[in-house]
Amino acid sequence: MAETKKQEQQVAKPTKPRAKKKRKLASVNGVAHIHATVNNTIVTIADLSGNAITWSSSGAIGYKGSKKSTPYAAGLAATAAAKNAMALGLKSVIVNVNGTGQGKDTAIRSLAASGLQITEIVDVTAIPHNGCRPPKKPR
After folding, report:
1. Strand, helix or coil at 29?
2. What are the average pLDDT values for consecutive 10-residue runs of the chain, which has 139 residues?
3. Which whole-number Å values give the CA distances from 49 to 22, 27, 96, in the listed order?
4. For residue 47, how many other CB atoms are within 10 A of its CB?
5. Contacts of 117 (CB under 8 A, 6+ apart)
6. Three-state DSSP state, 105
7. pLDDT reported for residue 16
8. How many CB atoms lie within 10 A of CB 76?
9. Buried b or exposed e, range 97-129, using 16+ CB within 10 angstroms
């Protein structure tokens, strides 16, 4: 009996993990969030309810170190995210820009150049209204 169980276990072949099917979007409108920091630029494209469709960043493209913070790397990241979103059926986006990094203007231009229609551009960078006291300056 023990031998038959061993034989059954050897016969069972491991299954390959299935790749997720690309699903078409219900709407052709979306929101592109551009988070431009001093060191990196992250582009996330979501549908109107806030569910992320695709994303890309300067580091994910392949740039490391100080090259991630360049406008060129931000443009490539925006283009890669836009191509993936357009493959799923996205046509127009509202762009939310957050941060003070160098790549935000180039990322917006790259989204437009890749074929997405930009309907609105909003700067959502947080600006303090004299809330918390800043840290003391180093001597």
Report:
1. strand
2. 61 69 77 95 94 93 92 95 93 95 93 94 92 90
3. 19, 10, 14
4. 18
5. 91, 92, 93
6. helix
7. 75
8. 23
9. bbbebbbbebbbbbbbebebeeeebeeeeeeee
